[in-house]
User: Fold this.
Amino acid sequence: MTIAIDIDEVLSELLSKVLEHYNSLYNTNLTQDKCLSYRWQEHFGIDLRRTLDIYQDFINSGKLKELAVVPGAVEGIKKIRDKHKLVIVTSRGACLKNDTEYWLDKHFPNYFNDIHYLREGLYDSMKKSKFQTCQEINSDFFIEDDVDHLNEFRDNKTKVLVYDHPWNQSFETTDNFSRVHSWAQIVNIINS
Ligand SMILES: [Mg+2]
Assistant:
């Protein structure tokens, strides 16, 4: 089977590190358990453009290369990579290719068959949706946490595994969706 996999908050812990960065800049105390959406600008109380400026600053400081791995992700990927084709589908820009591949090589060396970056620059909009990309690569499964992308998969044949986080609690898992709380659970579903 072909398994499409998001990076941020499914393989990597991005938001917690970005909040740490934001807190140190603005002397605030934001925590991700209070983030009930994945639109960072709502937590920062600023517009998207300024939010991306902060993200750019975070990237410039080299922190994207230092993200922690979601617990169990390395072990989980190791258990499915021999039997299935694993494809990264990320809304990260191709401008982040170096940092992204440095991080993937460090934690998941040669574990993925392909990587799709769905925008060019950090400030650009997506050139293609995750849904379209999954259709094109004919993925059997897609693992994702962001409600904005999940919504595109309503009434579709791709089986979507919703990686449980505070910001997707309101997402209703019907039909082709299953909520998962760990990589062990993902492995069980894919291998069953
Ligand atoms: Mg994500």
Notes: The first strand starts at residue 2 and ends at 5. The longest helix spans residues 14-26.
